[in-house]
From TrEMBL:
Annotated organism of origin: Paenibacillus pseudetheri
InterPro entries the UniProt entry points to: RutC-like_sf (IPR035959), YjgF/YER057c/UK114 (IPR006175)
Stored Pfam families: Ribonuc_L-PSP (PF01042)
Protein name per its UniProtKB record: Enamine deaminase RidA
Lineage: Bacteria, Bacillati, Bacillota, Bacilli, Bacillales
Amino acid sequence: MNLNNNVITRYNPENIAKPVGNYSHVTKISRNAEMYVFSGQIGIDQTRNIPTDFNQQVTNTMSNIVEVLSSQKLTPDHVIKINIWATEEIDWDHFYGIWNKVFGMTPPSMTIAYVKGLGLPELKIELDVWAAG
């Protein structure tokens, strides 16, 4: 279940295997919600620096997601789906440490793919965020 009033409901059906990570199998959006689609968020900081460290890019990316949501008067509870694109193996301890702080007990649906490259050669991770509110 979810904290986001009647706009978003999340659950994991009993008739399929539990998620292998911290995500929800199903995210349902009410009919009266507005949909928000954001450009992929990357690990750039406010000074336009893209760190070479993968985990710092993860930290910056999650911070940028919170800020872009805030720009639309949304919170992480409004996120319905995140697609994760990474060029190297994710340090799940670091990733979930931040993910769990941002999304809490009812995380959004998630898809993960490892790719050869992203839009800029220095990028190691990009998160594609969908929200409803």
